[in-house]
């Protein structure tokens, strides 16, 4: 009986070691076959995270551009956050110091012809030029939803990550995000995550 107890204790305590440190790049896919998430680690620390848009019905290679990307300092503090338009061009870049304070924000128009923002360390500052195209739509085309009289943003978890999606108010169905482009991203209508 003691031998069996010893074996059970050994298996329970002796085999429950820490999981190995992650090192390298890991990726997951949407059910559509498009790339969903890429994470890079160095000695167990997350150094980069990229989340990709998924457009159902598109060739997987066409759907493979990020919605945002973030990088981290060695102390696990976020170093920067880059957001992208639906057409794949850079929308904004926010840079942080090692304490987590934002030190620079760069914004760009949808075609990446103009930029504005500030950088505290260099003293650069530029206000948004008049008439910039900053609407986030998919290659100059938006499939306007005709089934709903109005729309609202919904924030919820997909595979452990919080995402924003546009929904029709009349039927609650998800529609293309461009239908919510004129609304502030707040989730008061469907608060459950």
Order of helices and strands: HEEEEEEEEEEEE
Number of helical segments with 4 or more residues = 1
Question: What's the mean pLDDT score?
Answer: 75
Using DSSP, what is the number of strands? 12
Looking at the overall shape, the CATH architecture of the largest domain is: Alpha-Beta Complex
The largest β sheet comes out as: 9 strands, antiparallel
Tell me what the structure shows:
With 193 residues, the protein is mainly beta. It has one helix and twelve strands; from the N terminus they run H-E-E-E-E-E-E-E-E-E-E-E-E. Strands 1-2-3-4-5-6-7-8-9 form a nine-stranded antiparallel sheet, with no helix packed on it. A hairpin with a 6-residue loop joins strand 7 and strand 8. It is globular and about 65 Å long.
Provide the fold topology.
Blueprint: H1 2-14, E1 24-29, E2 35-42, E3 45-52, E4 66-72, E5 78-84, E6 90-96, E7 102-108, E8 115-119, E9 124-126, E10 151-158, E11 161-168, E12 174-175
Antiparallel strand pairs: 1-2, 2-3, 3-4, 4-5, 5-6, 6-7, 7-8, 8-9, 10-11, 11-12
